[in-house]
């Protein structure tokens, strides 16, 4: 039978070659075997192996023995993330970019084009990563998880802040599952470790007054950022998982764990379980402690008392008065 | 001096020709006079006159007498709307389309490209005009005002419903100025006349949790829709200004009047005068009367008591309990 010529550069055959190497991980697979299994020429096999190497797969090739997969790169490739992910909604579609302006911006564009709920966009690097209130978000290549989800919940705009809490909780749970580290949550959207900022959530929406069209939840998490990598403005206030546990954290299983928790928490949220999720959030949050809060340009010391069912922060001022905060900057007081 | 050749098809010369005809409205202006004033050939004058006629300007041309402007068409041309408009923000930029999908959609696209606050998009016809909650909005050609504004207020998402009220009030005031008709407001976003729906407002936004990126306020107003034009679903429940006052209403001065009131009300809103605007809104609203309200699929008879400072509706249920309504469908009870 003639070997396929047109299939030689086919990405789907490349996936098959990789699958075979993964299945046989630890042993050599001969070029002949691959060639026969895929019904392609030996030259085509070689080209696919080369292409996989360029993608970062560590493959050793020896004459008369063949090819052996030594290591899978820690890149957020769709094939790696989707392998064994098994989520129902979150990550149903997954788009990967080596570099983007901002994953939130990409998801917003996809949403405007009608993309369905659950789509995830992840990037190795963001050149215009954003935080709350137009602040920038440091997103160096390969050192973090910078990704965004598209959600289309049947919510009113004023109910959307709850999703930020749910996403923060899910991220914390995912980190715990993948690394054993227990991170803490700071209202409304930050993840902390050892009193330093580990990550944040940027929730954006498009809505009419009584209906949300879509919500974009962007998650930025410092995973393997090295101490020397931080820009001066973040040194001493930011932290990465690697710094916290003294070792490189593989990002692929971490992202998978977070996506699974997001899938689970979002399903529970839609099923009306926000009160229970909020209770879990509270257990991990900085509550019952003094914080600085900046409201309308004025910074004051208050007690962060609780978060209510709408996702608003309850603070106790020094005169004992309790008030609800819709938006404000909270700063931990390190004592 | 040689006549300009390249300028013959210039739209800016066309504007000059029109301005001259308007200035001399009621008398004939000779081709020679126009030709000399504009420094263009007699043939060019003729072409411009023809082009203006195609735009709907009624110009009579007689040999040896010249050209005389009899009537300006009632189209929402930028030159007609901007003439004497004198607003500070609203209508600063004005885009006109004979037909669009939806003016809100056009403004949202402009906003995403960085268009500044105050831009207005108006169309003679919308093929995909939208109302609240994804409902369609009947927007036949030339019979209404279908337009949208771009605003960039420093608001939280939960404060945006106030803008719907402000826009409704401004529209009612503009209609009163231009026609003498006093329309009534129905929470959250409708304009009524004689117990029938005259218009509506569709407010959309793009926001993060504590900052609005932009707000699009779309206004649809039935101006000269004829009784026979209504689709069966709207017959008996919708009304146009023409039906109400038995004569054709010129749309250009009407739109100008509304834009001026929007400009004024928005300026007052930004200056912190929402309480006073809300008071004006209340005076024109259906409050203190029984209505049907549909909440979570259930329709019940309640009293619409008031609207609070957040723009939420206060209702009194039959058992006397007062509650706040964030989103719901209110139906007037015609008794």
Please explain how this structure is put together.
Two copies of one chain form a homodimer. Helices cover 31% and strands 28% of the residues of chain A. Chain A is α+β, with helices and mostly antiparallel strands and 335 residues long. Strand 8 of chain A pairs antiparallel with strand 8 of chain B.
Radius of gyration of chain A: 23 Å
Beta-strand level of the residues of chain A, as a percent range? 25-35%
Order of helices and strands of chain A: HHHEEHEHEEHEEEEHHHEEEEE
Shape of chain A: elongated
- Total helices of chain A: the number is 9
| Helix content, binned percent of chain A | 25-40%
The largest inter-chain interface, given as chain pair and residues per side, is: A-B, 25 and 25 residues
* Main beta sheet strand tally, sense and closure of chain A: 7 strands, mixed
User: What is the CA–CA distance across the termini of chain A?
Assistant: 76 Å
Helix/strand layout:
Two copies of one chain form a homodimer.
Chain A: H1 11-23, H2 31-38, H3 42-54, E1 58-62, E2 66-71, H4 78-82, E3 94-100, H5 103-112, E4 120-126, E5 144-151, H6 161-179, E6 184-186, E7 190-193, E8 196-208, E9 211-222, H7 241-245, H8 251-270, H9 274-284, E10 289-295, E11 298-307, E12 313-316, E13 322-325, E14 329-332
Parallel strand pairs in A: 3-4
Antiparallel strand pairs in A: 1-2, 4-5, 5-9, 6-7, 7-8, 8-9, 10-11, 10-14, 11-12, 12-13
TL;DR?
The structure is a homodimer of 335-residue chains. With 335 residues, chain A is an alpha+beta fold.
């Amino acid at each position: 039978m003639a070997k396929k010529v047109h299939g030689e550069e086919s990405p789907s055959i490349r996936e098959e070659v990789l699958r075979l190497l993964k299945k046989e991980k630890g042993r050599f697979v001969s070029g002949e075997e691959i060639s026969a299994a895929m019904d392609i020429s030996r030259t085509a096999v070689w080209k696919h192996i080369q292409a996989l190497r360029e993608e970062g797969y560590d493959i050793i090739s020896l004459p008369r023995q063949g090819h052996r997969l030594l290591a899978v790169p820690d890149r957020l490739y769709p094939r790696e993330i989707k392998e064994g992910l098994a989520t129902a909604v979150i990550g149903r579609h997954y788009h990967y970019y080596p570099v983007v302006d901002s994953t939130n911006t990409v998801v917003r564009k996809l949403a405007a084009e009608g993309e369905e709920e659950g789509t995830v966009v992840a990037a190795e690097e963001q050149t215009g990563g954003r935080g709350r209130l137009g602040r920038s978000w440091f997103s160096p290549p390969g050192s973090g998880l910078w990704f965004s989800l598209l959600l289309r919940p049947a919510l009113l705009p004023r109910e959307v802040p709850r999703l930020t809490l749910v996403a923060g909780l899910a991220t914390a749970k995912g980190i715990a599952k993948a690394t054993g580290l227990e991170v803490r949550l700071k209202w409304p959207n930050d993840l902390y470790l050892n009193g330093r900022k580990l990550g944040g959530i940027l929730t954006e929406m498009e809505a009419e007054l009584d209906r949300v069209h879509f919500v974009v939840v962007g998650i930025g998490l410092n995973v393997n950022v090295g101490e020397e990598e931080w820009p001066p403005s973040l040194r001493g206030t930011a932290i990465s998982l690697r710094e916290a546990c003294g070792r490189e954290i593989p990002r692929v299983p971490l992202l998978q764990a977070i996506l699974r928790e997001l899938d689970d928490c979002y399903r529970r949220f839609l099923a009306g379980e926000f009160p229970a999720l909020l209770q879990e959030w509270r257990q991990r949050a900085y509550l019952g402690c003094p914080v600085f809060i900046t409201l309308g340009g004025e910074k004051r010391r208050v007690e962060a008392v609780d978060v209510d069912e709408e996702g608003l922060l309850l603070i106790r001022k020094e005169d004992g008065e309790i008030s609800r905060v819709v938006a404000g900057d909270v700063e931990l007081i390190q004592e």
